[in-house]
Amino acid sequence: MDPNSAINHAIWVIDGHPQSGSLGSALAAKYAEGARQAGHEVRLTVLRELQFDYNTPQEALEPDLAAAQEALQWCRHVTVIYPNWWGTYPALFKAFLDRILLPGFAFQVEEKGWKGLLSGRSAQIITTMDTPFWVYRWILGAPGIRAMVRATFGFCGIKPVHVKLFGPVHASTPAQRQDWLGEVFRMGLAAEQAIRPPRGTRIKAWLAVARPQFYPFPLLVLATGAVAAAATLDHPVRTAPLVLAAGCAILLELFTVLTNELHDQETDRRNRNAGLFTGGSRVLVDGRLTAPQLETARRLAAGFLIVLASVLAFLVSSHALIIGGLVLTGWLLGHQYSAGPLRLSYRGWGELDVAFTHSFLVAALGWVSQGGPWNSAIPWGLTAAIFVSVLPSIILAGVPDRGADRAAGKNTLVVRWGVRRASFTAMAAAAAAMILKSVTSSGGPLSPWLTGAALVHGLILLGGLWVLSRRPQPDKIDGVLVLALTFMVWFALEPFLAYITGIPSTE
């Protein structure tokens, strides 16, 4: 592999010229040669050699077209080379696109419009023509290019799309054609530059894979454990240990989501219902980042976690072993959530894993960061209601993903039990959380109001879950999922506000 090529990409080159011996075919071969020399894995498909009917019904795919669909799913970048005929492209190339870019494969119809299903791929269009460029662009409006970039590739989610025009061919000299062949060979060598997303896109991809929406709740639970310890021991919250504990919680969450991204690629690739809290960030599926990059980030997160946990254990030396045990437990549960050998989320235990780490584990970490006695029952009492309040949201998160999870062998509770039974389980957890909250109060001045709000919210959630249980094949459940996610906040907010009023303001 060329050392200048950082990543080995899968590239599909399509020779769309109907005639053999053409300049376009020579350009396709040269591009493929350059890409292979750069270390990329390349497949070259010559359309005129394929056997398929232009007008066969969409349901019937000949073997050559089935192989073409497989190549499109396989590739990270597609390069098409075709001649400009009558302002667009030959009938062979148009028929090929008509036959393989089918609904359910290249796009799908949704309630609010259309959704491209081929995102995560970039494209290069190379066109030969006899029309002068200025006529094609400014008088004719480049109809073929516009159709390919916007109405075909763009519609199916393929972007960015780069365009290169060669011509006029009829007036070109042999030397000029050799120059064009050399230029296309260099384009193949530099294919990585066309595939690599812009810097701003990469920043957005790193933010997406970090899943920042997952951090506020465990940090609130951790702060609840910390203020409970400070109030119980009658001293102000110690800032440095709290900040270090929060850093450990953030790094544990980051390590977990990165591990999940790496080990959930199969279900993410199949998932058509991904959302803000479901289906992963899709940065690997969409090609915005690579698995080696995520693995490096994951190792860095683990390394920084060790450093922060060590400093925290040094500052709170009386609880050093407990801190080490909690962090190690969080790391193991985060790793084994989707990685082997346990793969808890694939065995129906992932929901309990998430509920435990986002309740007792982080509350206990906050508790001991303030010197709270390790054998106290207070952290357990604080987090019992939190634990069961988390279950509805994590159960519901499997509903939109269930088809992809089932196909990938990920046996979440929804996959194992079905939507109806899973909805009833979520209802039972929500009811249990409401009962626990009604009989346990932290005693703050706002506790009656917050407890009442939690109960009202819970009743609304129960109604939403009942409606969900009656729906035959629910995919989009944004409303009830938001209800479940906001429901659990009350159970950490009420004790946090109650305990914070009992903390001394000065040492």
Explained architecture:
- The chain has 507 residues and is an alpha/beta fold.
- It has 20 helices and 7 strands.
- The chain has a 5-stranded parallel sheet, sandwiched between helices.
- Helix 10 (239-263) packs parallel to helix 13 (320-336), helix 14 (350-369) runs antiparallel to helix 15 and helix 18 packs antiparallel against helix 19 (478-487).
- The chain is elongated and about 90 Å long.
- Residues 1-6 have low confidence and may be disordered.
What is the average per-residue confidence, as pLDDT, rounded to a whole number?
Answer: 89
What is the global morphology? elongated
Share of β-strand residues: 5-15%
**Based on the structure, what is the oligomeric state of the protein chains?**
single chain
Write a concise synopsis of the structure shown.
With 507 residues, this protein is an alpha/beta fold.
Note the topology.
Elements: E1 10-15, H1 23-37, E2 41-46, H2 63-74, E3 77-83, H3 91-100, E4 107-110, E5 113-116, E6 122-128, H4 133-139, H5 143-156, E7 161-166, H6 174-189, H7 191-195, H8 199-210, H9 216-233, H10 239-263, H11 265-270, H12 291-315, H13 320-336, H14 350-369, H15 378-396, H16 398-407, H17 413-439, H18 447-470, H19 478-487, H20 489-500
Parallel strand pairs: 1-2, 1-3, 3-6, 6-7
Antiparallel strand pairs: 4-5
